[in-house]
Design brief:
This protein is an alpha+beta fold. Helices cover about 50% and strands about 15% of the residues. The model has no long low-confidence stretch (mean pLDDT about 90).
Length: about 575
């Protein structure tokens, strides 16, 4: 049981890391989960035995000898095997018994589920559903356009706050006093040995100290509004084509970039982006830039930002940097490492003193430091002067006033905190948050007015009027979304709204209008499906094969899980609750 719980704990820690708080661990109830896993495993082993599913010694041996965990010099090694098991507090007999059980359960699973298959037609339907894309034509009713129509009266505002005060609730906060051991404060007197510098260089010469393939480039950007019409897009393309023609006729790229580029950051530098390597730019830009010869200009490149012309000025080839080129960096890193070690040692020593009763101010004075007292903060916030750290937050919020945390490393610094006060969560008085409440009230009322206007629009369309005609009559501009699939969380450029996405795909072949307005970030949209893209071709066939395999595996797992549940329901399992409670109790 203890080993099962330990393995389960390790799995959760690998998956969730610092986010696995003590509260979450308590909610997970690992002892109960580990016990349930052991019960299921035992039931399956018994069922395999009842069905006569025997595993030979040779099968067990082959499985053990195939495990790379027991390899040495590329092959199974008996000493490595025994040593690894001893480290896990297992004997070979215990481990091999577990392997035999694993193989028997796997054979049972195959017997139960391997006959399950997903047909090609099912897989094709699933791929079509996943890969199909739809485009929306939509009318927008912007919250901001209705702000001026909102009238704020004290009585209405106060009543609204009373109804919505929970959204203004302030979470529990804490007040701490802390010492922050910053590495830079511990660098004085550090002496570096040449051998250490050389060793650090040799260790990183083939990896860290490599100059990557870089280019220095300039660009001219012409932006395209995401909501631009096709005519507007063509106008932008025509303007950058004219610039390309000027460059071909000998115009200076830097001068043209300064005058014409719509990237203000680089335009001021003649379009210069400086040196950059691969992975720094969007894929379309990167591919074009690295394919362009020095001194030449690329073809027109389209990216999510707009249309670009790129001139490559210089190329740096990949090579190993010399020791002298990186000496300053190595020395700085070594000095920081040694200073960090000093800071950690000082923090741990001071923590012991404070835990023993020494006042934090006295500890600080002895160390020549100052006690830092940041403003009260909530668990989800960062600490002023330190930053955000889940482990530190969890520690601070789990102790009582007067108690001291362990030492935590945060962004290279070491932090020791004493909890001074806990401030309970509260709902502030109306006057404390009047300005924020008024802003929220205005937004809510403006959104309500936008929704009312959208409903009027919708009523006309549902009554039979043409979507575009209603928009034109009301001065509404219609825009098109980018194509999106069932899997996408966002409909660009509208934002995230799963309900809107699902409504678009719920429409039949002869339906186009989404039956209700949708609110996204306070703005309201009425939309109609304007295009459907159904996947086809060789890519589709490859995906059908992959999806069929995935669906078959998933279906087999479902069938086997139902079988396990039936075994569990038919079994009589006695749980010794007092022993389980003892395992849950904190050590």
């Amino acid at each position: 049981m203890a080993r099962a719980e330990f393995n389960l704990r390790q799995a959760y820690e690998r998956n969730f890391g610092d986010q696995l708080t003590p509260e979450i661990m308590t909610q997970l109830d690992l002892p109960a989960r580990a016990l349930e896993g052991l019960v299921e495993r035992r039931l399956l082993a018994l069922e395999a035995d009842n069905l006569g599913l025997e595993i030979s010694d040779r099968e067990v041996s082959d499985r053990v000898r195939a495990s790379t965990a027991f390899f040495s010099n590329g092959r199974f090694d008996k000493e490595t095997y025994v040593r690894s098991l001893r480290f896990s507090q297992l004997t070979p007999a215990e481990y091999e018994s577990s392997v035999r059980e694993d193989l028997a359960i796997a054979r049972l699973q195959g017997l139960i589920a391997d006959e399950v298959e997903v047909s090609e037609s099912e897989a094709r339907a699933e791929v079509t559903a996943q890969e199909e894309k739809r485009t929306l034509q939509y009318a927008s009713f912007r919250q901001a356009d209705f702000q001026e129509a909102v009238v704020v009266e004290d009585g209405a505002l106060s009543a609204w706050y009373t109804e919505n005060e929970d959204s203004f609730e302030e979470p529990e906060k804490v007040v701490v006093a802390m010492l922050v051991y910053r590495g830079g404060d511990f660098e004085e007197g550090i002496v570096l040995e040449e051998d250490d510098i050389v060793a650090e260089y040799e260790a990183g010469r083939e990896t860290t100290f490599q100059q990557e393939n870089e280019i220095s480039a300039r660009h001219i950007l012409k932006r395209i509004n995401p909501e631009a019409t096709e005519e507007e897009k063509q106008a932008v393309r025509a303007s950058i084509e004219a610039l390309a023609a000027s460059l071909a006729s000998g115009a200076d790229f830097a001068e043209l970039a300064t005058a014409e580029s719509e990237d203000p950051g680089s335009a001021a530098r003649g379009g210069s982006l400086g040196f950059f390597g691969k992975g720094r730019m969007v894929p379309e830009f990167e591919a074009a830039a690295f394919a362009t010869e020095p001194g030449t200009v690329s073809e027109i490149v389209e990216t999510p930002f707009g249309l670009h012309l790129i001139q490559v000025d210089e190329v740096r080839e990949e090579r190993a940097l010399t020791l002298e080129e990186v000496r300053a960096d190595i020395e700085s890193n070594l000095r920081q490492t040694k200073a960090g070690e000093r800071a950690a040692e000082a923090a741990k020593s001071d923590r012991a003193a404070v835990s023993g009763g020494q006042a934090l101010t006295e500890t600080a004075t002895a160390r020549g430091m100052e006690v830092e007292t940041p403003a009260p903060f909530a668990r989800s916030e960062g600490v002023a002067g330190v930053g955000r750290s889940f482990p530190l937050m969890n520690a601070i919020f789990s102790i009582e006033p007067g108690e001291v945390t362990e030492v935590f490393e945060v962004s290279g610094d070491h932090v020791l905190a004493v909890l001074q006060e806990k401030i309970p969560e509260r709902i502030p008085d109306f006057e404390e948050v009047r300005a924020a409440a008024e802003r929220a009230y205005r937004d809510a009322e403006a959104s309500a007015l936008a929704l009312a206007a959208a409903n009027e629009f919708m009523a006309k369309v549902q009554a039979g009027e043409d979507f575009a005609a209603v928009a034109n009559a009301g001065g509404q501009r219609l825009n098109d979304s980018l194509p999106f699939s069932r899997q996408e969380q966002f409909i660009q450029p509208l934002g995230g709204n799963r309900k809107m996405r699902d409504a678009a795909f719920a429409l039949g072949a002869n339906e186009s209008l989404l039956e209700e307005p949708f609110v996204i970030a306070g703005d309201v949209y009425i939309a109609s499906v304007s295009n459907r893209e159904v996947p086809e071709g060789s890519d589709l066939e490859e995906k059908v094969s992959d999806i069929r395999a995935q669906m078959t595996q998933s279906r087999r797992e479902e069938v086997f899980q139902r079988y396990v549940e039936e075994l569990r329901a038919a079994a009589v399992v006695e749980v010794y609750s007092e022993r389980l409670d003892a395992l849950r109790a904190p050590s």
